[in-house]
């Protein structure tokens, strides 16, 4: 949320001119500005400003007509943005970016950040408006979770797919993606996905620079079908993140990379285990084919095939069976294996073809629900919750419930706005990664693992449940009262496990009672989870959420 004061100064200096692209507004209100007659003239004015600026206009809000800094309350600013977005919508434009500054009591401007409220009287803001209506979200969108040992080429492969450019073998491509950009500024966008590309009638729609917001927005707008990649960091210390990436989002497919030089490692096995345990249809890419001999590549492919057979899966070497067969056969059981090189681009057209045609998986029917993954406080907008829509559809203006709060209660909220890949949208359906701005709750009350549901839902928070668990590896046994962290959807919470038979040994499966240590969550039967403590790991399925007598 870094608001560079220069942007405000520039806008103020350029001033509001007849025939220019800058417009000053003190504030916009529903009562006054959306009234008949008034709305039409504001729509015409906005269209004119956007046209004058070659598709981009600047609205300075919280200033008087002559550019005097007035400052308005955060509530008034927020209402002004709501009204402005309605006007923009009518004018076939959208708000692309908003920056705000606090106005000090002496009339000067100070950059507004966390905790600056007390020093400021009001807000002044600069909204950038762009041509083009809000995104139509009827197109389909698959989310692919990447996994694999660190340095085996995940970021590079994704980078080369989304840009269409080869890698230099020296980390050239991943630098696009690995530098966590300051893209979060606005907070409204869920940047869980680190790469996105798409397809239209003529083939792939790729990015020139994955860092540029406008480039993402362009891909989202042009493509009929979108593919986003969600990273699941392969470093052992980050396994927590990996797990959250894998089970905390509604992924459609897994993409496991195995470098042809190193071959499968312990991490590879573990990641494969988790992908398969969550029943995610998975593609294995043997990367860096250019770096090894043909012989070595085949050897690694055979190792991968053996790994899959050991896990009771059927490997499907795409080289032998063809990509069409892979598209038809891929499921929880059948795992296509593709040889790739980001340097020679070998195998990438195969992945393109797969991602262009693979169907969306998982259930998307039913009422709206979303597990909150991250929360932000956006000046002038308020609390924003991001995550992946799990089921159903959410629309701007929807009345929802959010919770459970620590005491088990649910709070009534309203959807102020929805954003996807830096693009405002009117609605979003299952599988979409979105940021939802909420009215009726402060960011401090939101937490990862809470759920958004329709107002009509009658949710019962769960503190304790029964599960079928399996110990993947453990130095000793799992005894009564064992306390790992459970990762379920976006919930990451310490639990105590009480095996029915008193204990569980490595490789064992069995029934256990599981109790959240600190607070309840909303979970349901059939949900899968991973648990972890130190080097111990296991997986489980929720079988019963009714409280014990
Ligand atoms: P990640 O940790 O799995 O995301 O791996 P990176 O994408 O960061 O890749 C690690 C290193 O391997 C980088 O220096 C890449 O340039 C290199 N690399 C990735 N893919 C290939 C490839 O297909 N061929 C060659 N020769 N090098 C590659
Ligand atoms: Mg990486």
Describe the structure.
The protein is of the alpha+beta class. The chain has four domains: 3-131, no CATH class; 142-357, Rossmann fold (3-Layer(aba) Sandwich); 369-454, Translation factors (Elongation Factor Tu (Ef-tu), domain 3, Beta Barrel); 464-544, Beta Barrel (Elongation Factor Tu (Ef-tu), domain 3). 24% of the residues lie in helices and 34% in strands. The protein has 13 helices and 31 strands. The strands form six sheets. An eight-stranded mixed beta sheet has the order 8-7-9-6-10-11-13-12, with helices on both faces. The chain has a six-stranded antiparallel β-barrel with strand order 14-16-22-19-18-23. Strands 24-29-27-26-30-31 form a six-stranded antiparallel barrel. α12 (323-329) runs parallel beside α13 (348-357). The relative contact order is 0.10. Magnesium ion binds next to α5 and α6. Residues 154-155, 174, 178 line the site of magnesium ion.
Topology, number of strands: 31
Could you give the order of strands across the largest sheet?
A: 8-7-9-6-10-11-13-12
Estimate percent helicity: 10-25%
| CATH level 1 name of the largest domain | Alpha Beta
Into which percentage range does the β-strand content fall? 25-35%
Mean pLDDT figure = 82
**Uncertain residue segments:** 110-120, 135-139, 178-193, 233-242
Number of helices: 13
Supply the CATH architecture of the largest domain. 3-Layer(aba) Sandwich
Shape: globular
Largest sheet: 8 strands, mixed
Bound molecules: guanosine-5'-diphosphate, magnesium ion
Q: CATH homologous superfamily of the largest domain?
A: P-loop containing nucleotide triphosphate hydrolases
End-to-end Cα distance, whole Å, is: 49 Å
């Amino acid at each position: 949320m870094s608001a560079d004061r220069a942007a405000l100064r520039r806008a103020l200096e350029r001033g509001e001119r007849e025939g220019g692209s800058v417009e000053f507004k003190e504030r916009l209100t529903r009562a006054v500005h959306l009234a008949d007659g008034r709305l039409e003239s504001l729509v015409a004015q906005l269209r004119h400003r956007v046209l004058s600026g070659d598709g981009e206009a600047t609205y300075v809000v919280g200033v008087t007509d002559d550019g005097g800094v007035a400052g308005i309350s955060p509530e008034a600013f927020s209402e002004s943005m709501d009204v402005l977005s309605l006007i923009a919508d009518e004018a076939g434009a959208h708000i692309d970016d908003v920056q705000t500054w606090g106005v000090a009591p002496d009339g000067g401007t100070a950059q507004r950040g966390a905790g600056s409220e007390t020093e400021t009287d009001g807000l002044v803001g600069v909204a950038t408006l762009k041509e083009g209506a809000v995104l139509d979200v009827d197109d389909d969108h698959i989310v692919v979770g990447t996994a694999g040992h660190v340095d085996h080429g995940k970021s590079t492969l994704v980078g080369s797919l989304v840009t269409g450019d080869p890698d230099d073998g020296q980390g050239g491509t991943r630098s696009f993606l690995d530098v966590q950009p300051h893209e979060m500024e606005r907070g409204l966008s869920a940047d869980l996905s680190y790469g996105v590309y798409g397809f239209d009638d003529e083939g792939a729609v790729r990015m020139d620079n994955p860092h540029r917001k406008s480039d993402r927005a362009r891909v989202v707008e042009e493509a009929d079908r979108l593919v986003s990649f969600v990273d699941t960091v392969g470093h052992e210390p980050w396994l927590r993140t990996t797990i959250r990436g894998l089970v905390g989002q509604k992924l459609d497919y897994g993409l496991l990379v195995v470098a042809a030089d190193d071959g499968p490692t312990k991490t590879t096995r573990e990641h494969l285990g988790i992908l398969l345990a969550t029943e995610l249809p998975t593609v294995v890419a043997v990367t860096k084919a250019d770096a090894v001999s043909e012989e070595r590549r085949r050897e690694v492919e055979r190792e991968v095939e053996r790994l899959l057979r050991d896990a009771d899966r059927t490997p499907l070497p795409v080289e032998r069976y063809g990509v069409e067969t892979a598209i038809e056969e891929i499921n929880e059981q059948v795992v296509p294996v593709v040889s790739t090189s980001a340097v020679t681009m070998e195998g990438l057209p195969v992945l393109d073809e797969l991602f262009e045609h693979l169907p969306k998986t998982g259930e998307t029917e039913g009422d709206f629900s979303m597990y909150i993954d991250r929360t932000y406080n956006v000046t002038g907008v308020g609390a924003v919750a991001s995550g992946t829509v799990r089921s159903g559809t959410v629309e701007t203006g929807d009345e929802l419930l959010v919770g459970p709060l620590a005491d088990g209660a649910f709070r009534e909220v309203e959807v102020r706005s929805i954003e996807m890949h830096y693009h405002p949208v009117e609605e979003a359906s299952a599988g979409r990664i979105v940021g939802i701005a909420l009215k009726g709750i402060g960011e401090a009350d939101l937490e990862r693992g809470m759920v958004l549901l329709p107002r009509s839902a009658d949710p019962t928070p769960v503190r304790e449940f029964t599960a079928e668990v399996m110990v993947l590896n453990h130095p000793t046994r799992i005894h009564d009262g064992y306390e790992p962290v459970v990762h379920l959807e976006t919930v990451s919470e310490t639990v105590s496990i009480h095996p029915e038979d008193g204990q569980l040994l490595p490789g064992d499966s069995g029934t256990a009672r599981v109790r959240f240590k600190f607070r309840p969550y909303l979970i349901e039967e059939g949900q899968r989870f991973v648990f972890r403590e130190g080097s111990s790991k296991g997986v489980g399925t929720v079988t019963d959420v009714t409280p014990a007598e």
